[in-house]
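Z., the sequence and structure:
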Amino acid sequence: MKSRRLRYHRTGQAGARRGERSDQERQRAGVKWIATIPPPLVERDLRIDLFRGLSLWWIFIDHIPEVYLNRFTPKNFGFSDAAEILVFLSGLASGIVYGDLFRRFGFAVAGLRMLRRSFEIYIAQILTVVLLLVVVSYIAVWQPDMLDHANLAILLQKPRETLLQAALLRYSPVNLDPLLLMVILHFALILILPLTIRAWKLALTGSVALYVLAHLFDWYIPAYPRGQLYFNPLNWQLLFVIGIWWGANRGAWQLAVLKSRALAALAVGYVLFSFVITLGWQIHAIEAYVPGWLSRLIYPVDKTNLDILRLLHFAALALLCWRLLPSNAGILKAGALRPLIRCGEYSLAIYCASVLLSFAAHALLGLGSNSLASQTLVTLLGLGLMSALAISLAAIDRGMFPNLRPL
């Protein structure tokens, strides 16, 4: 993005000299030139909402194991999937919003806002666990194995201990793991953001070091009742920190990165390489052409610990998407994209709703016909309900229903 222009007009050489003298006076006074500070965004970057909405739709589809449509989600065409999109964009949005607050009003104001958002996500996690227990318990009347499938049987067997572990962020039912990860990362945001703004090199170096050490020494956070958290925060924090850094330190340097032909060529090459490898997972004739040494080098492509191949694949995709779709692109305001953008705008509520809807869809397909038509109908119904909820929340926030208070 362009640096903020000086707030006065320069006319002719005399004006330029006055501007130069003004800058020199600022430097002698020890005051930072305002152009070094990223300008606050005047308008919401709809790309963030669009891709966040897409990731929520893809996650919902992936959470219904029976449907054929989950063969067309990103996980089938590259090393990374919708989870990387959600984590990075959360960091990016946090860097933009709280970074601007930090610079304008100081740490106290920004810190309180970050803590409030962290507790909102935390409460949403706990409430969704309870709601999911109610929904799945009802489904279990006809499909008893659903409690085990959802990792909720332990909650019925040991309710007090399990709820305590959920409150301590060590227990999560199936499909709520990404939200648990976001809770942990957002509570860490109050420490990460100031460091990313004041000393971004130190922040990135520390994040990379933690990522490498966690891989080398197999560091993880234990889960209840056994194992480890599905998304290891010690590894996934790197993607989150990169997003914060990119959002909080906006400037002309980003245009140089995005417009680099060399980086674009590398990104295209890596995306194509990843596509061929993942296509071989489904078409064994292609997999036969992958050399054995290469297979031993890249496998397993670990999701729990954010394998470096996944991280690089997402970085390549993000570079290409941000390069090809500028923030002022007219298509972002197209009516057809409004449901997706609204889902991304209210991502927390929509994600929680999508978890409940995915189990309901799973149960419906398990009870009756599991034909392509029924799979399509159930999936579209779920996406429609998610979109309707998001549009309703937007209408409430924008005052279309004056008798209701904004959530």
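Confidence is low (pLDDT under 50) at residues 1-35. DSSP finds 18 helices and no strands in the chain.

Let me know what you think.
H.
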